[in-house]
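Aggregate trends can hide what the representation actually does to any particular protein. The sequence in question and its structure tokens are set out directly beneath this paragraph.
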Amino acid sequence: MSTRPGPLITRTTAGAGHIAVFLAHWAGGHTVSEEELLRRIIKARADAHAEAVDEHQREARRAHKKATKLRRIAAEDGGLVPAAQSDLTRAEHDARRHEAALEALGDFEITDIDPGQVTHLRKRYAVLRCTALALPVAGVVAGSWLLDGVVLLVSTLGVVTACWLRGNTPFELSVRPVPAELLSATARLVLEPAEEDEAEPEPIEADDLGAWRQTLRRFVEHAVAQAHLEKKGGVLAVDLLQRLQASGLHLDKAPDAFPAVLRSADIPVKKISVDGTKALGVQYTDLTSALGRLPQLPVHLVPDLTQKTGQPQPLPQKGP
């Protein structure tokens, strides 16, 4: 007698596995890209800076207004009583203090973002989403305990039906695009110059432009060589941009515009498939043709082929 499960059980089990993988991907906050997290951190810093500037400006205007009023009263009455004189001194002191705070704040500037802050923000997303997933389960348990066991039965049938409907079709585990309002907000805060005068941009020297391209080409070469070592045909452009932005580079670049940046550095870009995802990227064979040699690995990933198992290694000899 065969003990092989029937097609109904097989389909339901496969659907349950696909739904579990999707829920874990969503609940872990992996649908949010590194770029979005970086931009949200930058926007939060900019909003806090703007709020502090507005508060000090408001308090400074209030102190100046009060001091001006007391000086006018002193000019009209030929002096102030001791209490009013103390108020004038305090107002002038407050005005100087808030002006010093405004000078210390200055213009908003982006500082280096610790990767731990990005990880912490992703964990906060994960906590909120896990809580959202736990609420329906807690509701079913409470309803079954307080109302009737039919609640548990109906919920179980609903879950089984959803797993059967999903069947052998897996979910596409993707990353959501960065919201347009976040892109526009961070573009105004980060990309536009702080000064409003339309000064002509300083020309970039040829040496600086060559160094920028060389740095980008070296980074892409190491990433593609590492992907080839992991049995992958290449690296997607969006993945390259996320790694660069995690290091604080190219924060002003959008995923749609980054392939043009790669092409400007003479890096071949075309539509490739990596782990089932088809998008623009850099393929190993194309990069090899462009470089005229095999892409080189980073130093810490180069395998040591000098040691052989079972053979003793010679002791290092001291130089003369």
